[in-house]
Amino acid sequence: MERKKYSSEFKEQAVRRVIDTCRPIADVAREIEVNEGTLSNWVRLYRDEHPVEESPLTVSERARLQELEREVRELRMKTEFLGKRRPSCVTNAWAGRCKGCPGCVVLYQRWR
Q1: How close are the terminal C-alpha atoms of the chain, in Å?
Q2: Contact at 8 Å (CB) between 46 and 57?
């Protein structure tokens, strides 16, 4: 099977369809009858050659970002703490309710 050769104008038009219309690469590829991976490569190369300048964050966006970062830190700390909890059978062993698993039997006998 022979590889198709595409002109640079065709590639440019295909990439512009993806970027300008914000349509998925798969849709545009089907429409112009090009392999999705091929079009994806063209789009990636175009974006590498034409980086978009990002505008700096506004004061409200920066404040929201800091708030979200603080929330993420708190949630990570809570998750870490909850991951360190003792199993319920060990907790029950202190109260003398669990005598089934080996760890609880040892704890129960030791602290009885």
Answers
A1: 80
A2: no
Please tell me which residue, 57 or 68, carries the higher pLDDT value: 68
pTM greater than 0.85: no
pLDDT tens profile 66-94:
999 999 999 999 888 777 765 555 555 45
In angstroms, the CA 60 to CA 1 distance is 56
Q: How far is CA 57 from CA 63, 64, 67, 85, in A?
A: 9, 10, 14, 40
